[in-house]
Amino acid sequence: MADVWLETVEDRVAKLEQFIFGDNDKDAMYPRMGEFEPCIDTLGAINTKLVSGVTGKEKFAKILNRLPEVERYMDHGFTDRLTLSDPAKLDILLAEEDWIKKQAADLERLQELQKILDSEHLKVIPSLNEKFQELTKRHIEQQDRVAEFSEETKDLLNQYQSVVNLISKEFVMWDQMVTESERKALPKKVDS
After folding, report:
1. pTM of the full structure
2. DSSP state, 66?
3. How far is CA 26 from CA 21, 33, 37, 78, 128, in A?
């Protein structure tokens, strides 16, 4: 386990070095111990420089003193507090009461269904992806076979219809021949 953790850290360090140094020789550009001050000392020095830079400058002091006010103006709810009174906010809430209740009911229902979403049956779905692809492939093959069978069936039905039409014409022709023969075979009336 420790080996995996160590490899993960080494990979991250390698990615960071690649990001920082790019194609340059990292060994030549890599900072050596002792070349840089500790981070706290550096931050303290920067803070001292900022304080000395602001000291004696009234405009900066005024800006820094008004920083809480600026933060209050930047708050996203500030404009709502300016434009809407409490009764107006209450009216908005009452107007949206049904929608809010529906959303609350939907969220409660979602929490109830969360057990289903976290079930083992749904967690194994990614492992079934290969089987699903195989099933999809078979389904497509079967669709192709059904299309072929449909075409063959159409052809057979057309041939059957042609044969039935031909036989029907033969029967009609035979019926005419039999009728003609029967008519000829009838005794002729003699006129007296």
Report:
1. 0.32
2. T
3. 6, 15, 20, 50, 45
